[in-house]
Amino acid sequence: MSKITSDMTMGYIVKEFPQTVEVFQRYGMGCLSCPTAQLESLEKGAMLHGLDVQALLQELNKAVK
Known about the structure:
Blueprint: H1 10-16, H2 21-26, H3 35-39, H4 42-48, H5 53-63
């Protein structure tokens, strides 16, 4: 079962799982402290960056295992 889901906010993910910051940065999502990232779901953030949310989710969950 996945610990991180696409409906979680990016702010929550980074706060709860600091080891995910590196994954976000690799995907070009470096602005994790900006207000939008605190409120935006992972799915919406990935969509706005033109990323495959499933691939990102897989990488994030791999980082927290």
